[in-house]
Amino acid sequence: MYSNHILSIEDNPRDVALMKRIFKKHIPEYNLMHICDGEEAISYLESESFKLALPKLILLDIKIPKLDGLEILKRFRAYKEYLNIPVVIFSSSDLKKDIKEAYEIGANSFLEKPKSYLELSKTLPVLIEYWIVYNK
Amino acid sequence: MKEGSSELYPEDLKLIDCDKEPIHIIGKIQSHGYLLVCDATTLEITYCSENIDTLFNKSISELLGSSLESLVEDHLINDLENATNHVKLSPVRLHLNNEDILLIAHKTGNSILLEFENFQESQNAFDYQIQLSEVVTRLSEQNNEQQMCDVAVDLIKKLYDYNRVMIYKFDENWDGIVISEARDQGMETWLGLRYPASDIPKQARDLFLKQGVRIISDVNEAPVSILAHQGVERNNPVDLTLSELRGTSPIHIEYLQNMNVGASLTAAIIFKGTLWGLIACHHYTPKFVNYYERQSCKFLTQVFSSQLLLSTTNTLLEKVNESANLRNTLMKQISENWDISEGLVKGDMNLLDLNDASGAALYIDDIVYRLGDAPEERDIFKFISEIKKRSTQNLFQSNEFILDLDCDKDLIRKASGVLCVFISKFKDDCLIWFKPEKKSTVNWAGNPDKSFTNEKNFRISPRKSFEKWSVSQEKKSEPWQDYEVEAASVLRQNISEIILKKYEEVKTLNNKLTIAYEDLETFSYSVAHDLRAPLRGIDGFTQILKEDYYEELDDFGKSAIETILDSASNMNQLIDNILEFSKVTQYETERAPFDLAKITNDILDFLNVRLNHPKLKITIDANMPMLNGDAKMVTQLMQNLLTNAIKYTGKAEEPYIEVGSTLLNGDLFYYVKDNGIGFDQKHEHRIFKLFNRLVGEEYEGSGIGLAIVARIVKKHSGIITVKSAINEGSTFFFNLG
Predict the structure, then answer these.
(1) Is residue B317, in this structure, part of any structural domain at all?
(2) Mind telling me which residue stretches traverse the membrane in this protein (chain B) (predicted)?
């Protein structure tokens, strides 16, 4: 059952705050839900409540406490029924090995976090639009 | 009865080479004694000397083929049967035919040789003992070779009363030189004379080595033939190697006759198993020295030999010790700052102290270091390649190195002798020592080239002339002594070990550095990355302030917000540059040919230069040669150079940038030239260093751009230089190796 929200797994509260504002201001039609800890994230993804309200898109950071973002992705992609939920890696890393691995284990996109707020506020709406509207 | 083995001795054989004369089976004995030979198992008499009948009152035909048992007593037979091969039995005094006779017997192969000579009452044993201990004492008091030899000849002369006693020393070619002499008054000295090796041929030297001492009692007396029993193999003549009476080679007899010698005594000086020299005694009339005297002479010579060995060994030990100390010093000097040339050449002690050389050179890491009276550098190179031609060993020595080389007088004077050790197997790095030419006069006892004269039938006969024949010796140095060669060899090993140790240390250090460097790269990479997050916070929340509260702020508040945003942006740029810089280091270059003009145009398009800087005039040489390198990196390089050029021509009246190629000292260089503010040429090295800026805040920049450029060039093993002057623009030249 899809719900009209986007799930962000991200530990940096400043980035969360900035993203929340961008959503509110530029794409208010979507809700942003966020989890800031790896273990919490995976237990949510594997829970019944997740099944009841599936996100339209998952934004996943790599460096997050307790469980690494790529590890979360690997476990999440084991659920065949969720394969059509796009996962976009949203990280400050631009290491080749991270990018390669992310795609290998089933990321739909790999996006380096924009450097400035202005770039971020332009990027996020485009990203959402692409994965949700065009990808339908 | 047949003629015996004496026939085998080729009396008129056409001898080509004196070395081939089979003197140990000469088939004759000297006339002062008698010989009987019997089969060691059957005791049947197989050979006898022609004069034997006078000793036993039996005819030769009676004796040959009869048993020895009928001639000598049973206990003697028993001793003979149990004799050890090649060991002489104690002599036995016999009374035969009213004469006192001494029997000296030994076994050789399957034969027993019994030699008889007149018995002479030997000296009082007590006197002899006193004399002997005196001799030993006197010898041991001497501490150098010459003194010992002089003492020895005096003693022998006194004891045996020959007209002339000499010590004759062999050199490396077996030529002999008289190094010490005692002679009767009125005789001409032979001291210092040299005799060619052919005078004492190899087989004679071999016999001396085995026998130790030998006399010729009367040079002019005809020798006595050895006769064989019928049926005894003629091809198996009596081996007289250990015989006391062995007849003398007719060539040698002639040789002695030519010198008017009537009798001789010769004792071998044996040094570590080889023949070092001879004690040679000459008498001008016949002279017999009995067995006991001969044995004591042998003993004396042995004492002399061992004293000589001891003294030589001591000298050698001293030298070895000296050189070991020196080597330690040199090694210490080297390890002080890990510099081989420094340690060997520039310290308190140097290479030259290691031996008696007058000059030395060290060739290492393509540099020649010269010490003392060493040849010029180009001659040293010539020598090294010549040495490599002559030998593949890591040690080379010669005291006549220059003999076959075309050298000028100065070089001959400096470097007739050469000792060289190669430090490395794969390079020509080496140490060389030089000894100067030693012009000397060699006095031959007669012309050595005419030691033998060919007479009719080509029979060789010894030379007749013993007149002093002087030859001057050139292009030779003093020989390299064993200890000098040894010291050089050990020094070579020490240096090799040091090099190996140094190599290992450098390798370890290098590994550590590589790890440290990688750590540093990773560190700067992650630090730069981690700075992004808080910076995004600063930038983001300031932006929010600006969006939501800007109008509520006064002018200062507004400008403060702008400054924060500006600073955040600058910092982002800095982080970009640092990341870019560390990426250049991390990535390997992938070379391919490309067109620099095209890349330049792409960059200008990408940066929108023509639109953003309408005043700027840019010339690009479209015919530049293709560049071979990593296109991605070179794009980065050009982008930095162009950005700089644009930046620093920003205030020029007619800003101008030129990209092209040119030759500098014969090498192709590409260049980016501008007419911007330029800088003082003295800063040319500083500007390529990280965070080194020559300009103030009026020009934006992180001080990383040119460091990136330099790194990219270095990655390609290329060269970058800059020509500039204040207010006259800059030109950056680079190539990619």
Answers:
(1) no
(2) none
